[in-house]
Amino acid sequence: MLSLSTVFCKAERAHFFNSSNRIAEYFTEGRPLLVRWKMEILIGLLISSLSLYCDFTDAECPVISPARLVVKYGDPASSNCSSDTPVEMGWESTQGGVGLTDKEVKILNWRVDSLTDWENNPKCFTDGGQCLKQLDITVYKLPDSVSISYRKYPDPMVEGHQYLLQCLVQNIAPIGRLRVTFYKVSATGEQTELDTRQKAKDNIKTPENGTYILHFTPGRDDDGAQLLCSAMLDLGPEGPQPPAVVESNRLNTNVHYKPQITMSPGCFSMTITEGNTLSLNCSANGNPAPSYNWLLPQATMEERSVVTITNIAKSHSGDYTCIAINPLGNSTCTVNVEVTDAECLVVSPARLVVKHGDPASSNCSSDIPVEMGWEAFQGGVGLTDKEVKILNWRVDSLTDWKIKPSCFTDGGQCEKQLDITVYKLPDSVSISYRKYPDPMVEGHQYLLQCLVQNIAPIGRLRVTFYKVSATGEQTELDTRQKAKDNIKTPENGTYTLDFTPGRDDAGAQLLCSAMLDLGPEGPQPPPVMESNRLNINVHYKPQITRSPGCFSMRITEGDTLSLACSANVDYLPIIAGLASVVILLVISCFIYSSYYKHTRMSH
């Protein structure tokens, strides 16, 4: 059954309005005049509403496909206009227009071989102009050129000043879809985006020129870099993918900046021995290249980057100030120089670490020739007959534990001692219990002792206790060291550790190691000697391991109940269990004996 609106919509629009009076007469026949007028007005409004409803819902307008085109200026373009039912239709366009067809069709093509109208808006229409559809078309053109320049040419730029860059994009359309990006390319080739500009001119379709500006403040790191801009025409998903990009020329940057001293190790203090040569080199970064001046302690000025003083004296002590200058400013750096008295003798190496019985050697030297000698229990050298600048001390087999070789000059005015350490590795390293516990009991404390025999110097000895699990994993327990730096001859050392075993230690091993750490002049890595290994036998009370443990259960009458109990156990629980059984038997016998005697006496 058709609704009233459906019936009306199937009729002619003109018929709606011509029939309104007759419909009103039908519904108001025989009624008063005022009622008839009101009904005519209401029915008229109803028919108008239905007419509008039909216009918006049932009118069969054509469909344009594709509905949007992005076409490069001068390229061909094409789109179809189609309808679900055959109608007479045409294309209204400044290029490629098609008049109304003579017969009804379901599809009509619009096409141009070279689109040159920037503001062309092709429209598909049907007979009578009841329906009109417009093709959304964008005609674009890539720029003739893209160029970058300064608004006011600065040659050179100055660090910290602001300059105006401008990017000119010529003859591009549509300019509202243009995005201009400024870039900086460092001297190493690294490109950095500075900023992006875009103008809101979506209503302008014809080609235009665009000028885009950027404020740029250079730093000294920008010297030698390049500046450029790029123009990207972003026309959406229907446009070229990726969007077309045109780059500008590149501007070379020449940045001037004041000097910055790069002297290594920088502004510092130093000590130099009298008679040596002092050389200070001042260097700085600056553009243009700086000139250098040195202000010396004697208030004299030297115009050069390197200052050199040979055979320096104590009078040359003081501040040496470098000044780097260019037209943009200056930078200073001060080096404090202290000239000390020349040492009469120098022993090299100044410290020796020698294994007992090995050879040893050291040199004694002087800046100027002098008569010198070596005083030592082994390898001593008497005062030389003539002045020399160097004298060697040497022994083929060092056996004196407390030796202190000393180099001296004629008259004993100067003397330098050689710091020497004679060492010996231990004869043996052993570990044991202070009181032998076999077996150990979980939670009890036992005293371990590590004996290191015949080692020197014992003050440099470090003893470490270790535990090795049954799986081979080694754990450090503790480290011991005795402060006996004054003892140089071989000694024995005993080191103790309190150890409390747990059940997890059953089957593990204990050991200790002796490491002789003699510093950077000694053997590297420091020598280490390990002890024997003690096997651990730990007794502990049972711990039930039944799975799933203590629990409740139900069983049907007549079934078989089987429960198994298992536990981690060692010998001690077995002995304790046997003892408990014996005690219970003794108590039972005692009770039975008492009962028997009481029964007989009662009879």
From TrEMBL:
<dbReference type="GO" id="GO:0005178">
    <property type="term" value="F:integrin binding"/>
</dbReference>
<keyword id="KW-0812">Transmembrane</keyword>
<dbReference type="InterPro" id="IPR036179">
    <property type="entry name" value="Ig-like_dom_sf"/>
</dbReference>
<dbReference type="GO" id="GO:0007155">
    <property type="term" value="P:cell adhesion"/>
</dbReference>
<feature type="transmembrane region" description="Helical">
    <location>
        <begin position="571"/>
        <end position="593"/>
    </location>
</feature>
<dbReference type="InterPro" id="IPR013783">
    <property type="entry name" value="Ig-like_fold"/>
</dbReference>
<dbReference type="Pfam" id="PF13927">
    <property type="entry name" value="Ig_3"/>
</dbReference>
<keyword id="KW-0472">Membrane</keyword>
<dbReference type="InterPro" id="IPR003598">
    <property type="entry name" value="Ig_sub2"/>
</dbReference>
<feature type="domain" description="Ig-like">
    <location>
        <begin position="259"/>
        <end position="340"/>
    </location>
</feature>
<protein>
    <recommendedName>
        <fullName>Ig-like domain-containing protein</fullName>
    </recommendedName>
</protein>
<keyword id="KW-1133">Transmembrane helix</keyword>
<dbReference type="InterPro" id="IPR007110">
    <property type="entry name" value="Ig-like_dom"/>
</dbReference>
<dbReference type="InterPro" id="IPR047012">
    <property type="entry name" value="ICAM_VCAM"/>
</dbReference>
<dbReference type="InterPro" id="IPR003599">
    <property type="entry name" value="Ig_sub"/>
</dbReference>
